[in-house]
Amino acid sequence: MAKGKLPEQQQPGEGxxxxxxxxxxxxxxxxxxxEVKTCRSRIGSAVxxxxxxxxGPSSYPIPVSQRARVEEWEQLLSRVLSDxxxxxxxxxxxxxxxxxxxxxxxxx
Length: 108
Prior knowledge:
about 110 residues, rod-shaped
């Protein structure tokens, strides 16, 4: 590996096709981590909105007939959010970096 370059970066002497193939697991995991972060954000916003509706004056008032449904949704989404917040989206990086480290032919 070239000095100063991370394994997920193209290395000197490495072909474009080889680089993209070697880096594929890294890209997949980065994409998955981004999706987890997006889900956290969106579900967090939904939970805040639902709690706002339940806890008093809100710009999105709910009909009395729907209060139980909104409480159910808030509880469900709070549990999902808790599970998503427990996910360490960076824990995989050291292992994948080792797995994708560029090793020129003959230096395997």
